[in-house]
Amino acid sequence: MVCLSCVCRRGFAFAARLPKKDWTIRLAGLSVRHYSTKTAPQLPGMEYQDAVCTLNTLQTNASALEEVRRERGHPQLQLQAMRGFLERAGLTVEDLDHLNIIHVTGTKGKGSTCAFTEQILRSYGFRTGFYSSPHLVQVRERIRINGQPIGKELFTKYFWQVYGRLHETKDAHGGTMPAYFRFLTILAFHVFLQEKVDVAVIEVGIGGAYDCTNIIRRPWVCGVSSLGIDHTQILGDTIEKIAWQKGGIFKPGVPAFTVRQPEDAMAVLRDRAKEIRCPLWVCPELEDYQADCEPLRLGLAGQHQRPNASLALQLSHTWLQRRCLPDKSFPSTSVENTGVPEGTSFKPSPIMVKGLADTEWPGRNQTLKHGAITYFLDGAHTVRSMQACVHWFRDTAAQHERSASGPVARVLLFNATGERDSAAMLKLLVPCHFDFAVFCPNITEAIASCNADQQNFNVSVENMLTRCLDNERSWRLHNSSGDNTGTQLLIEGSLPLVPEKKADTLVFPCILSALQWITQGRDSVLADPAKTVLPVKPSIMAKAAPLCDAAEIHLLITGSLHLVGGVLKHLDPVSNK
């Protein structure tokens, strides 16, 4: 996520040049607070935003980017480099052995699995650390103690400790500094060691084998959530290649569990486990745990969360066995056709049952009701996760519509980034029968009130807005409108790309302008006088009549976790404090 004015400060005057078409958006009278990307000096009294601004320099650090390019052809160098950065920060891989780590990878559901697992162990009274990515609103969400993001003061304190050590040693190491995610991983390890957590739940960033979290030597247990096609440029373009990467987190003698996988993927995981001498089990179905207790209730909505909950039960149960019964073996009950034994479907303890029910994980199958507006937020960004999102949304929205006081308008707010197959995701969303499909980039707002947590210097405004226009065209094609000529940005004073054609698809230049148009002043949080309202063309305002006439508006926000985070920034002011 970025703030439009933050991008402007990098030399953009919020204007993007599209092939054969020139267009601009003029935002007059905006005051801009300057956040420099220059490395901030380490001085007493440095604030949280100063730390985050300095952290953001690692997104575009030239030496870090060169290092990534060099390592792409030699991925094994990534872990070697990570060990070097860890040691420069004053840590060793041996230190990480004391964190009693649960290491989780997967394509879909690894974050939810970690959230379930952390909640269960915290419910037992253990002091938990939880490292995840990406963040939704503030970067400190990635590093949690006892389920809560570390405070700004704590983040700032530990940030300068780690950054200072790395900065002091960079000249002796060719001027190198770790890239953004590597730095945050080192920072998380440092925080967890300093805060003396009993267990650290670590979510893999991308892949597994060469992910920087995989410098962990001796986790207590490993998990693999559902596998699918994603990050193909890094992990490979087949499920087998991706499974090989994910299985790279297995360690000799360390128990590992996986949810049921496609046959080809399971075969690769089985072979990787055998090669590494890692005992691997397949998780039972969640129903298999319920023989002697009430049906398990999950704090996270959606049928697709059930395998994640089963995996979390196996991970937490195994961790507790080692903690309390260190000499206990790990029996299996049956063997799958793939040759991977099935884990024990034990009876969950009351604490485990409560942990599953109490789990929260914002931005994933999340519902927020603000008066007449109901927000359905899900950061689905792959085809498989979008299938699950659609299933959840149709069921949940139908329940809300049955209790609505009158007609309901359905609106989609969508964005997708990177190499995601947005056309395929949009096709899955068509049967939801939206009255409007709205598109915007992951730009939180077009004024300077945003903080540094939303800055992303790895993508240009031009690329973001071009992608939105491409997504809008895909939606029109999937709706068989015969009109694939595109649309314009709907802020007054902009130059149209083409004449307006349809009212059911709109593109806005930022998240706030999209939300303000969709909600039509009916959400008091967005109608806050402190929030700038961009002037929208009268012709576009007139097309909002169905939204004004509806008793309720149901808004699905999906396609990108960064989009969901940008929306939550506006809907939940507490998350910014």
From TrEMBL:
Keywords: ATP-binding, Cytoplasm, Ligase, Magnesium, Membrane, Metal-binding, Mitochondrion, Mitochondrion inner membrane, Nucleotide-binding, One-carbon metabolism
Pathway: Cofactor biosynthesis; tetrahydrofolylpolyglutamate biosynthesis
Gene3D superfamilies to which the protein is assigned, alphabetical: Mur ligase, C-terminal domain, Mur-like, catalytic domain
Cofactor binding remark: A monovalent cation.
Protein location: Cytoplasm; Mitochondrion inner membrane; Mitochondrion matrix
Residues that bind ATP: R364, D378
GO cellular component: cytosol; mitochondrial inner membrane; mitochondrial matrix
Gene Ontology annotations of biological process type: one-carbon metabolic process
Key word ATP-binding present: yes
GO molecular function list: ATP binding; metal ion binding; tetrahydrofolylpolyglutamate synthase activity
InterPro entries to which the protein is assigned, alphabetical: Folylpolyglutamate_synth, Folylpolyglutamate_synth_CS, Folylpolyglutamate_synth_euk, Mur-like_cat_sf, Mur_ligase_C_dom_sf
UniProt KW Nucleotide-binding keyword: yes
Entry's EC annotation: 6.3.2.17
Domain of life, per lineage: Eukaryota
Catalytic activity: (6S)-5,6,7,8-tetrahydrofolyl-(gamma-L-Glu)(n) + L-glutamate + ATP = (6S)-5,6,7,8-tetrahydrofolyl-(gamma-L-Glu)(n+1) + ADP + phosphate + H(+)
PANTHER family per record: FOLYLPOLYGLUTAMATE SYNTHASE, MITOCHONDRIAL (PTHR11136:SF5), FOLYLPOLYGLUTAMATE SYNTHASE-RELATED (PTHR11136)
Functional summary from the UniProt entry: Catalyzes conversion of folates to polyglutamate derivatives allowing concentration of folate compounds in the cell and the intracellular retention of these cofactors, which are important substrates for most of the folate-dependent enzymes that are involved in one-carbon transfer reactions involved in purine, pyrimidine and amino acid synthesis.
NCBIfam families: folC (TIGR01499)
Protein family according to the UniProt entry: Belongs to the folylpolyglutamate synthase family.
The protein's name: Folylpolyglutamate synthase
Source organism: Larimichthys crocea (Large yellow croaker)
